[in-house]
Amino acid sequence: MTIARPVAFYAPLKSPNHPFPSGDRTMARLLMKALDRAGYAPQLASEMRTLDKAGDRQRQKYIRQQSLAEASRLIAHYQALPEEQRPCLWFTYHVYYKAPDWIGPRVADALDIPYVIAEGSRASKRANGSWALGHEGAEAALDHADAILVMTAHDRQALETVRPQRQSLIDLPPFIDLQEWPATGDRSPINTEPRLLTVAMMREGDKLASYRILAAALERLQHLPWRLDVVGDGEAREEIVRLFGALAQRVRFHGAIDSKSDLRALYEAADLFVWPAFNEAYGMVLLEAQALGCPVVAGAYGGVASVVQHGETGVLTKAGDIAAFAEAVGSLLQDRKRLRDMGENAFRFITQERDLDRAALRLRNALEPLTARPGA
To answer: Which residues are in the Glycosyl transferase family domain (predicted)?
Structure first.
């Protein structure tokens, strides 16, 4: 029987054990599942969070200092273990200027093991200014990586431009665990009064900006029949409810829903998932909706085009364009055959191309050359 080799897993932006849900936490957990299914034994190396949202240089200096101390502790810990219990690879999820990895490269060097990043992004415009130190740490980590698992075409462009010659860039598109979202397989016919669905946290910043776009777009569609279910909660809830004040009779706010079975029921009952995706990296909810046969209208930000097939599984509109978003939603609401076809395409796309098993296979193929024992 082959014993799974340990892999040190680290998520500097948000630990998979973080108490508050988000797409980052979900993907961190999924990557650990995929590593396990790929034949490794992922172990969370550290809970150290390096996120600096405000651009505070003193905070970044403190984070770096604490991270270096954590790296020293981990090196001593791992070196004290028998060789077969030490990690064969360090795997970091999500590195960028607001959440650099100061730990992984140092531990990997000390243990002489490969260093891999999944979802790393470069932002040269942050080399100076409030996040300069965080940018420095992120760039150093990205330069150090033996391989970067690229999750969106948007990230690949910048990564390819300054890729060190020894470094591999390997596609690992966003995925979900379909066993967490078992479809019943018998979606009801499109409702006489079409049901729209949004699932998103209600917080200041980008999420609130998306809600603003959505409310403004739907106000333009009051001549059409539709109802909107909104799942989510947070500090911006009161303001978001006010945004939809003119549509109050058509909108139902469900609050946060933790139960996947309850949330699945809403996905399956919806005819169209609507989310402007303002500044989204890609959006896990877009994958979830499609997995349950619900087509999507979303804004074409960042890596959203890597999770929604424009014209096939949904419609992507110009980022931030309220009129274009309203037109896309209105057009689909009035074309039931297209709406139904897109839902069927969405289900096939996710179940055939974006499931956990396929992601595990991609990981195995990417990591085996790096972790192969000498002479094996």
So the answer is: 207-347
pLDDT in tens, 5-41: 999 999 999 999 999 888 999 999 999 999 999 999 9
Residues 231 and 195 sit within 8 Å (Cβ to Cβ): no
Let me know: does 138 contact 95? Beta carbons within 8 Å: yes
Mean pLDDT value of segment 244-252: 97
What is the biggest distance separating any 2 CA atoms in the chain, rounded to whole angstroms? 70
Lowest mean pLDDT among 4-8, 45-49, 370-374: 370-374
Residues with Cβ within 8 Å of 233's Cβ and at least 6 positions away in sequence, in order, are 201, 202, 255, 256
Higher local confidence (pLDDT), 112 or 185 = 112
Q: Which residue in the block uniquely carries the two structure tokens 């508050």? A: 20
In the chain the domains, ranked by start, together with CATH numbers, are: 5-175+355-371 (3.40.50.2000), 179-353 (3.40.50.2000)
Per-residue confidence at 253, pLDDT binned at 50, 70, 90?
A: very high
Tokens 């890609």 -> residue: 282
Q: Which strands sit side by side in the sheet containing 147-150, from one edge to the other? A: 40-44, 5-10, 90-95, 115-120, 147-150, 168-171
Sheet of 251-255: strand order equals 251-255, 227-231, 195-199, 272-275, 296-299, 314-317
Query: In the structure, how many helices (H) and strands (E) does the chain have?
Result: 12, 12
Per-position b or e across 167-180, b if 16+ CB within 10 A of its CB: beeeebbbbbbbee
Determine the Cα–Cα distance for residues 32 and 16; give it in Å rounded to an integer.
Answer: 9
In contact, 182 and 355? CB cutoff 8 Å: no
For residue 163, count CB atoms less than 10 angstroms from its CB and return exposed for 0-12, middle for 13-18, buried for 19 or more. Answer: middle
Which candidate, 314, 347, 307, 337, places its Cα nearest to that of 186? 347
| pLDDT score of 338 more than 90 | yes
Query: Mean pLDDT, the chain, as a whole number?
Result: 94
**Closest-CA residue to 62 (of 49, 75, 73):** 49
Residue 192 pLDDT:
82
